[in-house]
Input
Amino acid sequence: MDTSTTSIARSDDLSLRFVRNALLAGRFSVVAFTILSSLACAFWVFFATPIYRSSTVLAPVRTDTSKGGLSAALGQLGGLASLTGINIDTRDSRVEEALAVLQSREFIERFISDHKLLPILFPKKWDPRGEHWSVPETKVPTPWRGYKYFSQKVLSIERDKKSGLITASIDWEDRDNAAAWANEIVERVNTEMRERALGEAVASTRYLEEEREHTQLVETRAAINHLIESEIAKKMIATVTKEFAFRVVDRALPADVTDILRPKKLLSVALGAVGGMIVGGIFAIWRLGSRRSRVGTPTT
Output
């Protein structure tokens, strides 16, 4: 073994010995930091507001209007169908559109506005007695801030790639409100998609009827009639189907009072103990090193 390898091994041995001696000398400090940190975390967990989760499971509603005569009609009319906004491959596009609406700024801001949720989302900035904001005007929460907070901290959407099921969850301190908001958001997005489908079908039908009046070709008129029948069917489905975009498989219910999402009590206390132990160890090493550097003693 050469001289450099020997010196490195000796240096590592001295470092480990120094750490061991420091921890032994400061064991009471390590224990004290561990206990204090655990107590602080336990105190925080005890007084922290518990957050609960209410979830509703949804199945995307898929309809197929590309059967039989409609496909033939679309083939005959070429670009006319696209001009009316008709898309025969609407199964996945409707689901994606509904999910986008569910998480859109306009949709969430309207929900927050209708329920006057800004004071509830930012209670520390609201004076409930005077019913006004207790912060300067420049710091008053805006609808944009409400949307960001709600979409990042309150609402979460998960989609199972295998089953296709969608889980919409609300995380909130009030268990009843969490369940009510989760269910209402689904109802609202279904209503939004129904109204959109109705509007598109009405506009498409009006356009097709006008085109039918201006054509004399029998084949074209027959194809247009097929398209009109399809749009009438869409209007009927949108009118009578409440669960238009998402079918509720499992409605959201208030979480059990013991089913706390966060903070996790045992985990928080355990992390506090580990953190206190690490801080205590660092303090013990620093103290021994500082003491030896003052007296000029080698750290061996």
Q: What stands out?
A: The chain has two domains: 3-48+263-295, 52-250.
